[in-house]
Design goal:
The chain is of the alpha+beta class. The chain is built from five helices and eight strands. Strands 2-1-8-7 form a four-stranded antiparallel beta sheet. A two-stranded antiparallel sheet has the order 3-4. It is elongated, with a radius of gyration of 19 Å. The two termini are 36 Å apart. The relative contact order is 0.16.
Protein backbone atom coordinates (compact mmCIF):
# COMPACT_ATOMS: atom_id res chain seq x y z
CA UNK A 1 0.00 0.00 0.00
CA UNK A 2 1.20 3.52 -0.69
CA UNK A 3 0.10 6.86 0.70
CA UNK A 4 -1.67 9.33 -1.52
CA UNK A 5 0.85 12.11 -0.78
CA UNK A 6 4.30 10.72 -1.45
CA UNK A 7 3.93 7.16 -2.72
CA UNK A 8 5.70 5.72 0.32
CA UNK A 9 4.91 2.15 1.31
CA UNK A 10 2.61 1.87 4.33
CA UNK A 11 3.31 -1.02 6.68
CA UNK A 12 1.16 -2.32 9.52
CA UNK A 13 2.06 -3.85 12.86
CA UNK A 14 0.05 -5.69 15.47
CA UNK A 15 0.65 -5.77 19.19
CA UNK A 16 -0.90 -8.97 20.48
CA UNK A 17 -0.04 -12.41 21.77
CA UNK A 18 3.20 -14.05 20.69
CA UNK A 19 6.73 -14.97 21.55
CA UNK A 20 7.96 -17.96 23.46
CA UNK A 21 5.22 -17.88 26.11
CA UNK A 22 2.47 -16.34 23.95
CA UNK A 23 2.32 -13.27 26.19
CA UNK A 24 0.50 -10.05 25.39
CA UNK A 25 2.43 -7.07 24.11
CA UNK A 26 4.21 -9.00 21.35
CA UNK A 27 5.06 -6.89 18.28
CA UNK A 28 4.58 -8.49 14.88
CA UNK A 29 4.60 -7.27 11.30
CA UNK A 30 1.04 -7.47 9.96
CA UNK A 31 1.52 -6.61 6.29
CA UNK A 32 1.25 -3.77 3.82
CA UNK A 33 -1.98 -2.04 4.81
CA UNK A 34 -3.31 1.46 5.15
CA UNK A 35 -4.97 1.79 8.56
CA UNK A 36 -8.47 1.88 7.05
CA UNK A 37 -7.80 -1.30 5.07
CA UNK A 38 -6.86 -3.44 8.07
CA UNK A 39 -9.25 -6.42 8.31
CA UNK A 40 -10.18 -5.48 11.89
CA UNK A 41 -11.77 -2.22 10.62
CA UNK A 42 -14.33 -4.00 8.48
CA UNK A 43 -14.89 -6.87 10.88
CA UNK A 44 -15.05 -5.31 14.35
CA UNK A 45 -15.19 -1.52 14.20
CA UNK A 46 -17.99 0.88 13.51
CA UNK A 47 -17.79 4.24 11.80
CA UNK A 48 -18.54 7.25 13.98
CA UNK A 49 -22.12 8.45 14.24
CA UNK A 50 -23.75 11.55 15.68
CA UNK A 51 -27.18 13.10 15.97
CA UNK A 52 -28.24 15.69 13.44
CA UNK A 53 -30.40 18.72 14.23
CA UNK A 54 -33.57 16.58 14.13
CA UNK A 55 -32.19 13.98 16.55
CA UNK A 56 -31.60 11.44 13.77
CA UNK A 57 -28.42 9.36 13.82
CA UNK A 58 -26.07 9.95 10.93
CA UNK A 59 -22.51 9.02 9.99
CA UNK A 60 -20.07 11.55 11.41
CA UNK A 61 -17.69 12.55 8.64
CA UNK A 62 -15.67 15.11 10.61
CA UNK A 63 -11.92 14.36 10.38
CA UNK A 64 -11.56 14.07 14.17
CA UNK A 65 -14.55 11.73 14.61
CA UNK A 66 -13.45 8.51 16.32
CA UNK A 67 -14.38 4.97 15.31
CA UNK A 68 -15.77 2.59 17.95
CA UNK A 69 -15.72 -1.08 18.81
CA UNK A 70 -18.83 -3.24 19.30
CA UNK A 71 -19.16 -2.01 22.91
CA UNK A 72 -19.13 1.64 21.88
CA UNK A 73 -15.59 2.27 23.12
CA UNK A 74 -13.37 4.59 21.11
CA UNK A 75 -10.34 2.88 19.59
CA UNK A 76 -8.24 5.91 18.63
CA UNK A 77 -8.94 5.61 14.90
CA UNK A 78 -10.23 8.79 13.25
CA UNK A 79 -11.57 9.60 9.80
CA UNK A 80 -8.43 11.66 9.16
CA UNK A 81 -6.23 8.63 9.85
CA UNK A 82 -8.27 6.58 7.41
CA UNK A 83 -7.94 9.29 4.78
CA UNK A 84 -4.13 9.53 5.05
CA UNK A 85 -3.59 5.78 5.63
CA UNK A 86 -1.42 6.17 8.72
CA UNK A 87 -2.71 5.78 12.26
CA UNK A 88 -3.46 3.42 15.09
CA UNK A 89 -6.23 1.25 16.43
CA UNK A 90 -6.05 0.52 20.14
CA UNK A 91 -8.62 -2.08 21.06
CA UNK A 92 -7.29 -3.16 24.45
CA UNK A 93 -3.74 -1.84 24.98
CA UNK A 94 -2.12 -5.27 25.14
CA UNK A 95 -3.67 -8.10 23.14
CA UNK A 96 -5.07 -6.40 20.07
CA UNK A 97 -3.71 -3.09 18.85
CA UNK A 98 -2.56 -2.08 15.39
CA UNK A 99 -0.62 0.80 13.90
CA UNK A 100 0.54 1.79 10.44
CA UNK A 101 3.35 4.03 9.24
CA UNK A 102 5.49 4.72 6.20
CA UNK A 103 8.18 2.07 5.74
CA UNK A 104 11.00 4.60 5.84
CA UNK A 105 9.82 5.85 9.27
CA UNK A 106 10.33 2.43 10.91
CA UNK A 107 12.78 2.19 13.77
CA UNK A 108 15.09 -0.68 14.58
CA UNK A 109 12.55 -2.88 16.43
CA UNK A 110 9.98 -2.45 13.66
CA UNK A 111 12.46 -3.24 10.90
CA UNK A 112 13.56 -6.34 12.81
CA UNK A 113 9.90 -7.43 13.08
CA UNK A 114 9.46 -6.91 9.33
CA UNK A 115 12.52 -9.05 8.61
CA UNK A 116 11.50 -11.75 11.11
CA UNK A 117 7.90 -12.00 9.86
CA UNK A 118 8.25 -11.12 6.16
CA UNK A 119 11.84 -11.70 5.10
CA UNK A 120 14.06 -9.54 2.98
CA UNK A 121 11.87 -7.80 0.33
CA UNK A 122 10.64 -4.90 2.48
CA UNK A 123 14.01 -4.56 4.21
CA UNK A 124 15.55 -4.01 0.78
CA UNK A 125 12.93 -1.35 0.02
CA UNK A 126 13.61 0.30 3.38
CA UNK A 127 17.32 0.71 2.66
CA UNK A 128 16.57 1.96 -0.86
CA UNK A 129 14.07 4.53 0.51
CA UNK A 130 16.75 5.71 2.95
CA UNK A 131 19.16 6.30 0.08
CA UNK A 132 21.55 3.40 0.68
CA UNK A 133 23.08 1.87 -2.43
CA UNK A 134 23.28 -1.81 -1.50
CA UNK A 135 24.40 -4.56 -3.85
CA UNK A 136 22.00 -7.20 -2.53
CA UNK A 137 23.62 -9.96 -4.60
CA UNK A 138 26.72 -9.60 -2.42
CA UNK A 139 25.02 -9.31 1.00
CA UNK A 140 25.43 -12.23 3.38
CA UNK A 141 21.78 -12.86 4.29
CA UNK A 142 22.80 -14.50 7.58
CA UNK A 143 23.88 -11.03 8.72
CA UNK A 144 20.76 -9.00 7.87
CA UNK A 145 19.84 -8.51 11.55
CA UNK A 146 23.40 -7.32 12.19
CA UNK A 147 23.03 -4.94 9.26
CA UNK A 148 19.82 -3.52 10.73
CA UNK A 149 21.48 -3.13 14.12
CA UNK A 150 24.51 -1.36 12.63
CA UNK A 151 22.34 0.96 10.55
CA UNK A 152 20.67 2.32 13.68
CA UNK A 153 23.61 2.23 16.07
CA UNK A 154 26.83 2.86 14.18
CA UNK A 155 27.52 6.26 12.61
CA UNK A 156 30.14 4.78 10.27
CA UNK A 157 27.87 2.04 8.94
CA UNK A 158 28.31 0.99 5.32
CA UNK A 159 26.42 -1.82 3.57
CA UNK A 160 29.61 -3.26 2.08
CA UNK A 161 30.56 -4.29 5.65
CA UNK A 162 27.98 -7.06 5.22
CA UNK A 163 29.00 -8.36 1.81
CA UNK A 164 30.12 -11.96 1.56
CA UNK A 165 33.89 -12.32 1.74
Amino acid sequence: MTTEKNNSIIVAFKIGRGGRFNNGGYLSFYGEYKVGDLPVVGEHLFSPVREDEDGEMMIDERPEAEWRDCNGNGVGLTNEMIKCGVGEINIDNEYESYFTMPLEACGEDLLRAIYRDNGLPLVKLFFEACGWDVNWDKVDERRITDMIDEYYNEPLFHPSDFYRK
